[in-house]
Amino acid sequence: GNHILSVNQFDRDAIDKIFSVAASMQPYAKRQKRTTVLDGAILGNLFFEPSTRTRVSFGTAFNLLGGEVRETTGMQSSALAKGESLYDTARVLSGYSDIIAMRHPSAGSVSEFAEGSRVPVINGGDGANEHPTQALLDLFTIKRELEYNGKGVDGLHIAMIGDLRYGRTVHSLSKLLCLYKNIHFTLISPQELAMPDYIIDIIENAGHRLTITEQLEGNMDADICYQTRIQEERFPSQEEANKYRGRFRLNQAIYTRHFQSKTVIMHPLPRDSRMEANELDNDLNLNPNLAIFRQTDNGVLVRMALFALTLGVEDLVSKYERDVIW
Ligand code: CP
Asked: Source organism's superkingdom (predicted)?
């Protein structure tokens, strides 16, 4: 099927195409233009795990292309709670929609669902496994931010910080970055929350530079500082998760000590803003290099592009343009 399940399915040409379509979506996302290219199409937005931006930006992206959105949130409200299989659920729900976006707490579940689906399925995060659309919007953001600094992705130095074990966004992003040249990955986490070995193997086999450390040290020449949240919901117990809360705080003073004045600060969000965690302090909100809300805006562009390309309407978007009335 024409699914988006893992970043493994993309090469650099496919990424370039997605990003060029995403850039062309800007006037529609900014409401300077309207299009009804997906008039009559229905998105099944199935979120069996909490989400704010992925769920709402998938829905917004589909609406901005003129389509309708049906929402299902929470396992308890679906027949999965009665023991229905993901396969049967997919057979049924794919009869009600033209495309499905799905998030689920267990790794591999979205692929299992896709096997039963009669329409394309897009993975909005499956457990600690992958979050391919997040990785694409992160890479799109990295490209844009670096262009602003006069650089490209080849030769990039990225520092990834925090929960690299359970954080699926860093897994997908690392794999995508491996398609580029001479990337320097600095992975900063306690050993217990280290990047999985299979990702380390991919980085090393692709010949990239790898630095692994447990703490922020010295002044790094990183272009990107990619901070993460401790994924408490994936830990065996709350007690276990509590051990790592607050281990990787970042505020303006810490940023100034360890990073260059141009280092771009990213985070997939949500950031845990409770004082005991505080992984991105509000004092960074005034830092122009804080790209977190540019990431969330870019998420709409990238998801619009993925819908248009998956449904084969990328060349028809401007043909179905309408006036903006209000
Ligand atoms: N970045 C991200 O996946 O956020 P949500 O959990 O709010 O969708």
From this structure: Bacteria
